[in-house]
Specification:
It comes from Natronorubrum halalkaliphilum. The chain has about 375 residues and is mainly α. It is about 55% helix and about 5% strand. A hairpin with a 2-residue loop joins strand 1 and strand 2.
Length: about 375
């Protein structure tokens, strides 16, 4: 908030700590699609303190500063931006981290700051209402809308013309285990919605398999008779979760590997079990095991229904049919189209930086 005759109050200077924090969470969201809730607590506490500080400064300045520079922008920020963030999260438009980020910004940036940089005063533009968190939100939406255009231009420049070129691009199947996003293919062709790759990782970890296992022995693992008697923890599908090659328990995070007491024995066990998996392909593609009828072995291809019934939650809304179709595609193709699903925290960070430097993209464009 800028009081008459001043530029960059102490609260406004302290608010700049949000820039490196949001840069960090944006990078983490790209790499892992996971942001801990604890990152927002310090920013929320800082925002509450600075809000009270701003209110005290405005109250001691004059009635105009109190009503027009503080009260109205703060009311819009807390009474409009906060409900929008909550409603978008409730209806599935935002992830939990996205909603929390906007809630924090509504508390941290209710009013327009101003910073003197040489002969410049930033932001370069302002809005009639002066609610800075709303400016950040509209900037983020505009950046988010521009992302599909950039993706389409990138695909067109590379000669990749497809019905889904606006929302995704092709990747090697070998990259799928470390890729976030959603598969844009089914056995029938390209699709604008398909298997969530986090759900795929959950399924593979539950069975104690790798995608390479599925590709090398798809006839065997398509048979639900090969499901494990004691499935492994599926984790939450994060790329950073490591799984033992022998199908043992999942280890959350690479650092947890150091907690295995006897790593050599674990590796040896993994090698031994892997050799047991490398059975003759012809034998694996033969009839179901003794005692299993044809109807029993084909009622639930890939064990998709058994997996979803066994785990807690819904695996990001994945249906058995989506899981089966995704496995069929990934087991057969060398390259597939995926949608990376740009994390909204990236446009939010871009919207914050643009707001601090330029101001409101929407107002600047219209006026």
């Amino acid at each position: 908030m800028t009081l008459a005759g001043s530029v960059a109050t102490t609260p406004d200077l302290l608010r700049l700590v949000a820039v490196p924090v949001f840069a960090w969470v944006a990078i983490r969201d790209i790499k892992t699609r996971r942001v801990s809730s604890t990152v927002w607590i310090p920013l929320a506490l800082l925002g509450a303190v600075l809000l009270v500080w701003d209110g005290w400064l405005a109250w001691n300045a004059d009635s105009y500063a109190w009503s027009h520079e503080f009260l109205i922008p703060t009311a819009v920020s807390l009474g409009f931006v906060v409900p929008i963030a909550y409603l978008f999260w409730w209806f599935g438009g935002f992830g939990g981290a996205d909603a929390k980020a906007l809630l924090v910004l509504a508390l941290l940036f209710p009013t327009f700051p101003q910073y003197a940089v040489g002969s410049w005063t930033l932001p370069l533009t302002s809005t009639p209402i002066g609610t800075f968190s709303f400016t950040i939100l509209t900037n983020a939406v505009i950046v988010g809308i521009a992302v599909p255009v950039v993706i389409a231009l990138r695909n067109a420049a590379a000669g990749r013309v497809s019905s889904v070129m606006v929302i995704g691009w092709p990747v090697s199947t070998d990259r799928i285990p470390v890729t976030h996003g959603r598969l844009l293919e089914t056995p029938e062709g390209r699709s604008r919605g398909g298997l969530d790759l986090d759900a795929l990782r959950m399924y593979l970890r539950w069975r104690g398999l790798t995608l390479a296992d599925v590709r090398n022995h798809r006839d065997r693992y398509r048979d639900p008779a090969t499901l494990p008697d004691e499935p492994n923890p599926p984790t939450d599908g994060a790329v950073t979760a490591a799984v033992r090659s022998d199908g043992g328990r999942a280890l959350e995070g690479a650092d947890d590997l150091d907690e295995v007491e006897d790593a050599d024995d674990a590796d040896a066990l993994g090698d031994a079990t892997e050799s047991e998996r490398n059975l003759d392909t012809d034998a694996e593609s033969s009839a179901a095991p003794a005692g299993a009828t044809d109807s029993e072995s084909t009622a639930d291809p890939w064990g998709a229904e058994a997996f979803l019934a066994d785990i807690e939650g819904t695996a990001y809304g994945t249906t058995p049919e989506e899981l089966r179709e995704g496995l069929e595609v990934l087991a057969a193709k060398e390259t597939v189209w995926i949608s990376p699903g740009t994390p909204f925290l990236v446009p939010v960070f871009a919207g914050l930086v643009i707001a601090l430097v330029y101001g409101d993209l929407l107002i600047g464009t219209l006026f």
